[in-house]
Amino acid sequence: EKHHIKRFDHIVKLLAFIALTLHWFNPFVWLAFELAMQDMEMSCDEAVINADDETGAYMGDGITAEVKTYGINTPCDYKAENAEFFADRVEYDLNGERVVFNIPGGFSVYNSLSAIGAVCSLGFEFSDVIKAIAEATSVKGRVELLKTNTDFGVIIDYAHTPDGLEKALNAVRGFTKGRVITLFGCGGDRDKTKRPKMGRMATDLSDVVIVTTDNPRTEDPDEIIREILIGTVGSKAEVVSITDRSEAIEYAIRNAKAGDTILLAGKGHETYQVVGKERVHYDEREVVAEVLAKM
Length: 295
Hints:
This protein has helices at residues 2-21, 27-43, 56-60, 106-121, 126-133, 162-175, 194-205, 221-229, 245-255, 284-294, and strands spanning 46-50, 66-71, 78-79, 81-85, 90-94, 97-101, 144-145, 153-157, 180-184, 208-211, 238-241, 261-265, 272-275, 278-281. By secondary structure, the chain is an alpha/beta fold.
C-alpha cells in the first residue's frame, strides 16, 4: 500500500511540475514553482520540461532528477516535426512515429508532447503511448468542433478573458483556410477593464467580429457591448453588434462561407445564461442545430 501511495504521489508531483511549465509565472505561481523545485529534488526521479519555454533551462538547472525535454523549435528528447493543423486535430512526427491528437490548435502539440513525455517517463512503451493518445478526445467546451455537415466550421470555446481569447483565436487561425468569424461577449458584474481589451484582441485576430451578450447578470447588455466596442475602433476587421446571442449566432452561420471558421467564445461548457439574478437554460449547441435546421 505504501508503494502505491508513493507512486501516486510521484505522478501527481511530476504532472504538477509539467503544468507549471505551461503557465505564466505570476508571483504566486513562481512561489509554487520554487517549492515544487525543492520538493522535486528530494522526491522526483524524472522531470519533463518544455525546451521551447524561456524558463525551461532554469527549471532543469541543478536538479537531481533525470530531465527529459520536449518542444518544436529546440533540440530535445521529444521534438515534434512536420506538424499539420486541422479543424479537429493536430498531427506531427515524433521519433519515427506519426502522432495524431484529436484536439486542434498549436497548444495541443505542446500539451500532447508533455503528456507523452510524462507517461513514457513512468515506464510505458513509446509505441503504446502514441496509440493511446490518438484515442484522447477534447473536453466539452474547449475548442469543441461541432458536427454541422457544412463547408464551414463551428467551434465552441470557453475563452472569456483576453489571454484565453488570444489562445483560442491563434488555434483557430492556425487551421482556418477562409475567414475567422468570432462571436463573443463579456459577463456582467465582472471585471470591466477586460472588455475593450477583448474587443481589440478579437479584431486583431479575426476577419469578422460579432459582439453579443454573455451572462449580463444585473448590467445592461447593450452597455457591456458599448464598452467592448471601444476596443474595436480603428480595426480592419468587420465588426457587428447583435445583443441577442441566438440572433448573433444565426447571423454568423448565415454569413459564413466555405472554409470559414466560426468561433463561439465565452460559453464553452455552460448551458445557461445568467440574466438578472436568474439562470436561464441556454445551450449554444442547440441554437446552432436549430439555425442549421432552418437553412
